[in-house]
Amino acid sequence: MKRSKLLILILLALFSLIFIVLPQRIETKGSNEVSNEVSNEVSGILSISVLDTDKSDCIIITLDSFCMIIDTGYSRKQKCVEEYMTKNGISNINYMVLTHLDADHIGNAVYILSHYNVKNIIQPDYEKNSTANNNYQKYIAEHKIEPRYLTDDLTVKVGELEICILMPMKTEYELDNDYSIIVSVSYGIHKYLFCGDAQEVRMGELLQYDLGEYTLIKTPHHGQYKPNTEKVLDIIKPRYCIVTRESADLTAKKTIKMYEKLGTRMYWTGYGNVEVKSDGKNLWILQ
Ligand SMILES: [Zn+2]
């Protein structure tokens, strides 16, 4: 083979490798970007666990010594959170993201704050009068803890791990659930999307991003069907979906149909914690 031909072949191979292997990056709306204090050289097994806390959310993401918790579950499921943290030797939490202020998302916020070393709290900026939120507000006021109320999206980088925290775009919504912070995680060739309890308006906002395909989605609002969720799914084409509720029987039939159409494999937390592990290339899901 001629030398020039060989060179062209090598260049073509390299070109296609770049497009196949590199994950597509989500462009956040804001310019905030922080590299975490954890070593930038970090590599290893990413762990994402979606806990069995009934119809409520508690997601724990770890890589090496880095830890992010997205929501804290119902307070009555505190034992489940405690057991997971103890089993995995977690005492430091770099970020606690409270997607919104409903009891099924902030139920164990006070427990987490009083038992673990939480460095940053990120939450949307709105008010809610409920026992769970009043307890949480009282605790942070008494302990002079100041959550971060972001107005722009924030990107957290830990080595190859990139976490985009997507803030609600409006200052006021008719439904509390639409204040939900959405979290997009990218590690190696896989991307993971956590949608809080986003409903039609908030899922519509997500359509404004250049999303690309995702490996896994924590479906919004415990499996409730919304047309904009279907539009997002048509873009992200997830291979796996996690529904944070007791069983398949309680999930909207339209939601199950929507995932079946895409060939997405579904998991329900009611059957036990869903644990996802990945080295950036290979991926395992245990339940
Ligand atoms: Zn919820």
Give structural notes:
The chain is an alpha/beta fold and about 290 residues long. The chain has a single domain, classed as Ribonuclease Z/Hydroxyacylglutathione hydrolase-like (Metallo-beta-lactamase, Chain A, 4-Layer Sandwich). It contains 8 helices and 15 strands. The protein has helices at about 5-20, 80-85, 105, 110-115, 130-140, 200-205, 225-235, 255-260, and strands spanning about 30-35, 45-50, 60-65, 65-70, 90-95, 115-120, 155-160, 160-165, 180-185, 190-195, 215-220, 240-245, 265-270, 275-280, 285. The chain has an 8-stranded mixed sheet, covered by helices on one side. A 7-stranded mixed sheet has the order 6-5-4-3-2-14-15, with helices on one face. Strand 3 (about 60-65) and strand 4 (about 65-70) form a beta hairpin. The radius of gyration is 19 Å and the shape is globular. The termini are far apart. The structure holds zinc ion (ZN). The site of zinc ion has 6 residues, from helix 3. Zinc ion binds near residues 57, 102, 104, 105 and 197.
Task: Write a concise keyword list for the protein shown above.
287 residues, alpha/beta, Metallo-beta-lactamase, Chain A, 15 strands, 28% helix, binds zinc ion
